[in-house]
Amino acid sequence: VKESLKLRQIMQTILTLGNALNQGTARGSAVGFRLDSLLKLSDTRARNNKMTLMHYLCKLLAEKLPELLDFDKDLIHLEAASKIQLKLLAEEMQAINKGLEKVEQELAASVNDGAISVGFRK
Fold first, then answer.
1. Hey, where are the domains in the chain?
2. Nearest partner of 37 among 23, 47, 27, 48, judged by Cα
3. pLDDT value of residue 110
């Protein structure tokens, strides 16, 4: 997600739209936005109540930046990543860290073990 240039350009376009809508207010010169603000794209309607900001964004992208419309191809791993349960991942990391600590303890203890026998060298 972070490496998708197309998604980055779309987000920049959304920021530009938001700044244009909020021009003249404290929010009119934002340098970023929270991801939950994306939900407002579908809720923010034009004065005639026929078009949302999401509709306008899609129309703008289709007309001016059509090369960005296939941004989903940059996100092929997103679905698989969304299925990873963070709790299980944290548990696995904890188990790996415990195993690493044991290896470090064994390594430290092996310093005092002495020379390796000739039979083990071959």
1. 5-76, 84-116
2. 27
3. 81
